[in-house]
What does this fold into?
Amino acid sequence: MSIQTQREVVVQSTTETDEGDHERFTHLVLEGYTRKSGKFVPLENSVVDGMVNATPVRALCGKVWVPGRDPAKYPLCPTCKEIATGLGWSLPST
It folds into this structure.
């Protein structure tokens, strides 16, 4: 085995990944809306409620999951982004 091959094996074995992270995205959740009268109408569980009580939430793209990870660590879901921009929402730049 050459030195180059041994070095590659060491690098590969020490790389740590969170299994499945390559498929994870930050999703946008519509928790409710405000009517013209100014009254807020909740839709489903909020993200905070989901994290505290382990209840599922629904993203704009339709994904249903129990939130529990830091969304800042993952890229924005392209489908959620497309829906939000189509609705005229302004999104923070990533």
User: Anything to note?
Assistant: The radius of gyration is 20 Å. Residues 1-20 have pLDDT under 50 and may be disordered. The chain has one domain: 21-86. The first helix runs from residue 3 to 14.
